[in-house]
């Protein structure tokens, strides 16, 4: 199959949108590394996905965990071709600016921004070395400066705005290397974070991240923010 020799690592891959991203990538012939903070959750997800999936204990908020997981991934598969930074935290509750909870802000940024940055630092050099890579940062329209219309979920919004900036910077730095870097907004999706009232199922939410993760050779799409496979304003 087209992607049969490729390996994808999905952070936060044991449930919700992450699990569905894993399923859809496996259906396209990729070998899947399911990253989750709890080994048991990753193992259970792999049973649901099938033999193409391997569990990986991974906490993106821990530099030590990231280094150990990426080293193990290399031993298991030989390298990572696709990185989907899906792990995320939304802790704001009803908090709105100007009020600030510094612990919530630090924890949110450490997962949503620094977590993706740690993963890129650990994985991208190997992609550059072989001249191929796809990095997908799962973000939100809440992080779009052009679309901000309220102060709801302020730490979450700011973390995703910063993640969008990281996407742009990585794409610029990696231009011409064969590594494409994009951000995907899955939309309001039924998941642990999105809740049961969301109008979109995980299958719909996973579609754009999977599309970006499997862009074919010769497709120069990089440095973009997409929802439903269409560009969104930054």
Automatic annotation (TrEMBL):
SUPFAM superfamilies, sorted: NAD(P)-binding Rossmann-fold domains
Residue numbers spanned by region Disordered: 188-207
Signal peptide from the UniProt entry: none
UniProt key word NADP: yes
Top-level division of the source organism's lineage: Bacteria
Keywords: NADP, Oxidoreductase
PANTHER family per UniProt: CARBONYL REDUCTASE 1-RELATED, CHAIN DEHYDROGENASE FAMILY PROTEIN, PUTATIVE (AFU_ORTHOLOGUE AFUA_3G15350)-RELATED
Family recorded in the similarity comment: Belongs to the short-chain dehydrogenases/reductases (SDR) family.
Record-given protein name: SDR family NAD(P)-dependent oxidoreductase
Organism the protein comes from: Streptomyces xiangluensis
Lineage of the species this protein comes from: Bacteria, Bacillati, Actinomycetota, Actinomycetes, Kitasatosporales
């Amino acid at each position: 199959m087209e992607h049969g020799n490729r390996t994808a690592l999905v952070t936060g891959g044991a449930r919700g949108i992450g699990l569905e991203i894993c399923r859809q990538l496996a259906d396209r012939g990729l070998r899947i590394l399911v990253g989750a903070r709890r080994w048991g959750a990753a193992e259970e997800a792999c049973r649901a996905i099938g033999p193409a999936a391997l569990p990986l204990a991974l906490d993106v908020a821990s530099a030590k965990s990231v280094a150990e997981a990426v080293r193990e991934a290399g031993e298991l598969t030989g390298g990572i071709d696709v990185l989907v930074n899906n792990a995320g935290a939304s802790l704001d509750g009803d908090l709105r600016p100007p009020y600030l909870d510094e612990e919530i802000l630090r924890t949110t940024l450490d997962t949503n921004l620094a977590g993706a940055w740690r993963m890129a630092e650990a994985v991208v050099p190997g992609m550059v070395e072989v001249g191929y890579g796809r990095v997908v940062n799962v973000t939100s329209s809440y992080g779009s400066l052009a679309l901000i219309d309220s102060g709801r979920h302020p730490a979450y919004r700011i973390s995703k705005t910063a993640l969008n900036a990281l996407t742009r910077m990585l794409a610029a730095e990696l231009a011409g290397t064969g590594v494409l870097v994009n951000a995907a907004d899955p939309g309001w999706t039924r998941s642990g974070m999105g809740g049961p009232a969301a109008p979109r199922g995980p299958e719909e939410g996973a579609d754009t991240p999977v599309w970006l993760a499997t862009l074919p050779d010769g497709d120069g799409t990089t440095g973009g923010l997409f929802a439903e496979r269409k560009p969104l304003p930054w």
